[in-house]
Each structure stands twice: as structure tokens, then as C-alpha cells.
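Review form for a predicted model. The reviewer records the input and the model, then writes brief findings.
Reviewer: anonymous (R2)
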Amino acid sequence: MTLGSLQSEVNRFLSTELVERMKAPLGAATCLPNAAYTSKTFFELEQRLIFRRGWVIAGYTHQLDAPGAIIPVDVAGIPLLLVRDEHGEIRVFQNVCRHRGARLINEPCKNRQSIICPYHAWSYALNGTLQRRPHFNGGDLHDVIEGGSEEKGLFVVRSVVWNFWIMVNIDGNAAPLSEYLAPVEKHLRGYDFSAAVYAGELEFSIATNWKFACENYIEPYHVFSAHPRLSAFVPMSDRKPSVSEKHIMWNYYQFQSAEEGRGLGLPHFPNLTPALSQRGIWFLVFPTIAFEVYPDHIALFHVNPISPNRTVEKIVIYLVGEAATATQYQTGRQAVLDMWKKLNEEDIDLLLALQRGRAAPAYDGGLLSPYWDEAPRNFSRLVAKTMLKQSRLIESA
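Model under review:
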């Protein structure tokens, strides 16, 4: 796809008429068309215009538990390296040698002193600088660079660690992460995230588009029909529609009494107010930064788009203090993981049904509830708005 055709390709999927319908009053509005969930071209446009030009999660700090730890990941189709250097700083690079473009590392590793290309053994320090090029100037004529060369080193990827999560902006031009997450931070006052510790994770590979996973996450309308335990925990009469604040969608509920997996039997965050001691609150920061906070844990909902009809979800759990590892809390810890496993399994058939339903050509974006569906509609609008805006920016550069 050439630069000259980029905007026209986006417009082919997101016509002016469609965008206007998405802006209509909620009862008359619509969401994205079928092709947005099934087309390979649309998926490639998303990778380029949304995921490579915004802030997304690349990994988690617990994966890099000591200096010399390195994790290879793919984000938006780009191979990356997450590295904890000898000073304990987390760095992110593109996973490619500067010489002939070989992929540098294929598996997680620990206790590394350097990053060495498997092709011609070019050596890079953990801070990404080029150190040594064997036989570069002829047999036994090695190029050794004192202090390393940043200019010839690994390609740096803009990154920030936020709480436990390694955030990246691949193109390097997004607004500062602190600015982007400010609307979330104001809702987290009262929770001491520094008290939380990694406690386990779940992974699901689902034959559905990534947007369905996100839309379902932030939409509470389906709770009564899909999640019997969750519906009993907080009935529909006590639930509210999710709130949209530009690129942030969020919701919360107050529960009357805790239960296993949700606030019972494990240490709570310190100094919670009575209200926060009986609250579940969750967020989706466009495109895929999603997490939920209970009095006793944080659950990250990490969506990784693989193809138009394949998404890998991870649910990463953080418990308070010694609850994450101590034997005495093993039962309660497992209860949290089991609760999230069951809840997500209840959603999987729904996500498959949504994906299969997009093969019906008569479906035109939906008839939306004027009460419940503002967050899914806002998510669709953000997809369209971001793709249209970024395609214009690229072509005008």
C-alpha cells in the first residue's frame, strides 16, 4: 500500500456517511461495519494507524526480574526486545540487528551481559549501544568500540513503565503517557498500587477480532444473560452504563458483601475508604489498556491482536503484599484466578458468536440501546477517528 493510497483505503471502509451515523444520538447511532472485524486490509491499517502510533502494553515488569533479563515480544507486527539493563532500567528496542536485519533473540533469557546477533556475532550492550563487530575490517581485524556507539546501536523504542506495565509508543510521536493517562489517575486516588505484587496470569487464544474483546469488556449489558455469578454479586438494577471520557471508558459498582475472588479472605489495599472497600472499578484506555481494581486485587486485561479473527487475551493478577506468594493465602489466591477464568470462559462463546455473525451482509453496525451502549459506540468512534486522523497526518507529512 503506497502513502498516496493510505487515506483512500481508510475512507473506503469509513465513509463520511458512516462516520456521521456513528455520531448520531445513541438510539439512532451505529457502530463499525462488518469489514472492520473481518478484513485483512482493515486489520493492517489498524496495526499501522492505531497500534504503532499510540500507547500500548508490550509486557510486564515481573517478566524482567533482574538485570540481564530479556524478553522478545511482537507488538503491532513489530518484533521488540524488552530488556532490563545492568543498572536495573527497563529499555525497549526493535528486535533486529543493524547489520543485515537478522532477528536477535527468539526466546526469553536471563543473566545476559550483552545481546549478540546469531548471524555475524555483532555485539550490543544491554543499553543498546553497539560494542563489537568481529572481523569487520577483514580476518582477525575486529571493530571494538570503546564505550559503545549509540548512533550505530539498536533501534530504540519509546517506552515508559506505568505501575507494573511496560508501555510503548512505536512511532515515538504520541502525547506523553502521563498526559494520556491523567483521566484514569484521578479515579485511582485512594489505591496504593505500590502494595500490589504479581500473583499469576491466565491466557486465552480466541477466534475473534480484538475489538469484540474490548467492547465486551466495557459493556455491562450482557451480565444478566452471560454471567450468573456476577449478576448475583451485583444485580442489573444496581449497575450503570459505562462512562466515556474521550479516549477513556470506565465503570464501577458498589457491592453489598464481599465473596471469594472479590474482596473476601485476602488482604486489602491499605487505608481504603469504606466506599472503596466495597467497590469494583474498571477502565479501558483506547485502544487496549484495560484493568479492573477490587479492594484486594488488580486484574489487567491485556488484548493482543493477532489477525482479523484471532486475539490472544491475558488476565494478569496482582494481589496485595504477601497475598501474592504466601502459602497461607494459597486458597484465596486460587479463588481470584478461578473467578477470572470462569468469567472469561463465559464470554468466549459470545465473542465467537459476534465474529461469526459478521458474515451476515445485512448487518449494518447495529441497533443500539440508548441506555447501555454509549461505551461500545464510543470505542467504534475512536477507531474511526484515529484511523482517519492518522492517515491524514501521514500523507501530509
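Findings: The first strand starts at residue 56 and ends at 60.
Further findings: Residues 69 and 105 are 12 Å apart (CA to CA).
Recommendation: see findings above.
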